[in-house]
Amino acid sequence: MRAWTSPEVPDLTALGLGPGPAAHVHDTARGKAVVLDPEGRARMYVCGITPYDATHLGHAATYLTFDLLQRVWRDRGLEVVYTQNITDVDDPLLERAAATGIEWTDLAEREIALFREDMSALRVIAPDHYIGAVESIPLAVALIERLRERGVTYELDGDVYFSVHADPAFGEVSGYDQATMLRLFGERGGDPGREGKRDPLDCLLWQAERPGEPSWDSPFGRGRPGWHVECSSIALETLGHDFDVQGGGTDLIFPHHEMSASEAQVATDDRFAKAYVHQAMVAYAGEKMSKSLGNLVLVSRLRADGHDPMAIRLAVLDHHYRTGWEWADSDIVDAAKRLGRWREAFASGGPAAEPVVAAVREALADDLDAPRAIAAVDSWVDAAMAAAGDGVPGSGRTVASAVDALLGVI
Question: How many CB atoms lie within 10 A of CB 388?
């Protein structure tokens, strides 16, 4: 699948600023910040959207968070290999298509195109591997076959299940107890109450063909892969096992990231990912922003209303990724004012650039603390405005390049 075109990212070492510091980011599985400083190359997998509606600010927050991590790694001098999937066949997509009378393939294609436009407008660095669920079906089938050969699958009325407790590490990603797992599994697409399963938490690897739904041939009969095995197989194919970061929203911690990891770990006898990084939920009108509730603030709508995408980016980045927050309509107004001041100061110049660049780098390396990085730029801008153009020659251009490289704002 085709991704969008990545923005040009300035190389700050070419400006004599040297490489940035190593990233320290909170790992959900260990419950603490860990150093993410691989030698030479960083590998990251971030779960993509199910394309049955346009990109809302909850999505934007997730992809901007991992865009920051990419930028910190690149500023460090690392090569980054980034994979993102897109779940272009799944129950919610099929249900929305049926409800609206649109072919599911047409609906997916339309929303994927809009997602690309939103990511491009927000200057998100594109993934190296952007892979849809449909095109990855052969990868999922191959992984299911490996698991079947290991004796950790079973069939139930034509469906193929994975025995999650075949992985001794099952539960270590989330740290949740059994009761919490069962509750979340039922709420988030699982079937803990299905009769005939060996364990209520066992997850679907292959769903046998259902009337009126798309299906594909496989050694297990016609059908389609389950949700978790899609990501497991794509990640293993493009990144290998023991890659650096598995990312997504906190709603994916369980069951999705837990079960994806277990499937891969049983198949490979190795750790799936070194760290699991999760974006907190974004709310609007008192509820978590979600397609099912319909309380969405859409990136495309904000853009259509004439808001600068860089103001949208700034408004989202002004919240730490691990803290849930609620969008207010005034956020975009405040961000536009801030953006205007920044651009004015960059054009006129101000104090020396090196201290503010160091402060932004330090903030982002400290668990992607974008609000602290933004505050550091604000302080420089205040000083620049007070100096009324009487500053260090070229400082404005240097700070602008750093803000572009590290925060993705121009």
Answer: 9
Q: What is the mean pLDDT of the chain?
A: 96
Q: Residue 93 in contact with residue 133, Cβ under 8 Å?
A: no
Strand (E) or helix (H) holding 220: none
Q: What is the mean pLDDT of residues 4-28?
A: 98
Residues 31 and 178 grouped into a single domain: yes
Domain co-membership, 249 together with 357: no
Q: What is the mean pLDDT of residues 380-391?
A: 90
Q: Is 305 helix (H, G, I), strand (E, B) or coil?
A: coil
Helices marked H in 15-163? 57-76, 91-100, 104-121, 137-149
pLDDT, tens digit (0-9, with 9 covering 90-100), for 320-359 = 999 999 999 999 999 999 999 999 999 999 999 999 999 9
Residue span of the structural domain in which 369 resides = 307-407
Q: Where are the alpha helices (DSSP H) in 291-410?
A: 299-304, 309-317, 330-348, 353-365, 370-387, 395-407
Q: In this structure, what CATH number is given to the domain that contains residue 74?
A: 3.40.50.620
Same-domain check for residues 139 and 208: yes
Tell me which residue of 215, 214, 232, 235 sits closest to 223, measured CA to CA: 215
Domain boundary among 280, 301, 322: 301
Count of structural domains, the chain: 2
Run of H or E including 227: helix 227-239
